[in-house]
Amino acid sequence: MPSPRMTTTTRRGKSFGRWRLVVLAVLALVMGLVGASIGSGAALAADNPFQRGPDPTPQSIEAERGPFATSQMTVPAQSGFGGGTVYFPIDTSQGTFGAVAISPGFTELQLAISWLGPRLASQGFVVITIDTLGVFDFPDARADQLLAALDYLTNTSSVRNRIDRNRLGVMGHSMGGGASMSAANKRPALQAAIPLAGWHTTKNWSAVRVPTLVVAAQNDAIAPTNDHSLPFYNSLANTVDKAFLELRGAGHNQTNSPDVTTARFAISWLKRFIDDDTRYDQFLCPTPQPNTAISRYLSTCPYTP
Ligand code: 9J3
Fold it and tell me: Is pLDDT above 50 for 11?
């Protein structure tokens, strides 16, 4: 015969079991709602506050223009760099954008890299293509000028409020590419560096911590791949997110006019590392195979989460 104490215990047990059922039902309902909202694009966008623009496709990263309408303005020569052109998305409804400064090479003016201005800005970046103080400036001087251009963009320019000062990158052609390596070395807070047919007397960039995409030209007689881009890439630590893209059949000046392969990978790299936008991982990893446009590709895929 059950003791009163056991009866009480049983009653409390039943009572607790009922409450537990209610609690579990409510929990299941809440988790179901949370799960449904995680599955929606809106919640994913909110998960990464830096994501800009619609889901990318192979067509969207190769297109002459991305989803953002852009405007541009001329910057007169400054104390730290020779002036340039700023290309920026007109839309201010999505928050700030990352920014990229781009330097031309030895004897070149910004015209050599101008095509990248609207091409990258229309994907959701503020871009400044610069002239250097002197067309004969060497890479380390160009590096200081890339950094001065970023400081101008974020501190002084009329588009400064459109820019997230913590999400900046550098690019450049030839000595401007060497400058990109040097700038990454000087300013580890940069989020991306992309030298194009880079040229620098320094081959050891093992101190660089900035995610770096090294773009080389297969038939480069001015900055031969094996003397510049490949040693740059190999010297970067394996713990750094990095890639090496060699453009098949290309000469030193391939990237001085619109190049779809360069655009495809540069856009993906800037999106992935300046915007932390993992929607672009699909274009970077697994390591792309050689094809009609790519003679060699090396990477440290998969990249840091
Ligand atoms: O910026 C470049 O095109 C590098 C050219 C070059 O060979 O410079 C040698 C002094």
Answer: no
Whole-model pTM: value is 0.86
Residues touching ligand 1 (Cβ under 6 Å) are 105-106, 174-175, 199, 222-223
pLDDT in tens, 128-147: 999 999 999 999 999 999 99
pLDDT of residue 39: 41
Give tens-digit pLDDT for 24-50: 444 344 444 444 444 444 445 558 999
Residues 6+ apart with CB under 8 A from 42: none
- Catalytic (active site) residue 137: no
Q: Which of 174, 180, 229, 299 is catalytic?
A: 174
- Which run of H or E residues covers position 37? helix 4-38
User: CA of 45: how far to CAs of 30, 89, 234, 282, in Å?
Assistant: 21, 19, 35, 17
Question: From ligand 1's centre to the CA of 265, what distance in Å?
Answer: 24
Distance of CA 269 to the CA centre of its chain: 4
